[in-house]
Amino acid sequence: MIFQVNLQAGKPVYLQLADQIRYAAASGRLRPGDPLPALRPLSEELRINRNTIAKAYAELESQGLIETIQGKGFFIKKSESPFSEKVREQLLVAEIDEAVVTALHLGVKREMFLGLVHERLDHFCRELEKSGN
Hints:
By secondary structure, this protein is mainly α. 60% of the residues lie in helices and 6% in strands. The protein folds into 2 domains: 13-76, Arc Repressor Mutant, subunit A (Orthogonal Bundle), CATH 1.10.10; 85-131. A two-stranded antiparallel sheet has the order 1-2. Helix 1 packs across helix 3 and helix 2 crosses helix 3. The two termini are 19 Å apart.
């Protein structure tokens, strides 16, 4: 698994890394039970502080996407969400709001935005079907 971070981006590095892991899990590139890179080697590869990676992993663990197994490392968990439906909705609304604000700033029309949402949802559903999740 190859991760990339942009130190010049406006988004914190730990969130960039967490987003990439979420994307890989959603697309089926990472499956339940798959290991994530250990902190030290990944920090050396990306040339970032390993505490930054630990923060990304902690974020993902708090969201129920990954789990830590003592002495073995970090792994993708099964996709059952530990969050209640209300909390899942709140998290999703925050992400949707961010996408809507970005679309408005870019001048994207409603029809195009909704078309892109449908297209991306279809894409991820196809990827999950291919991966057997």
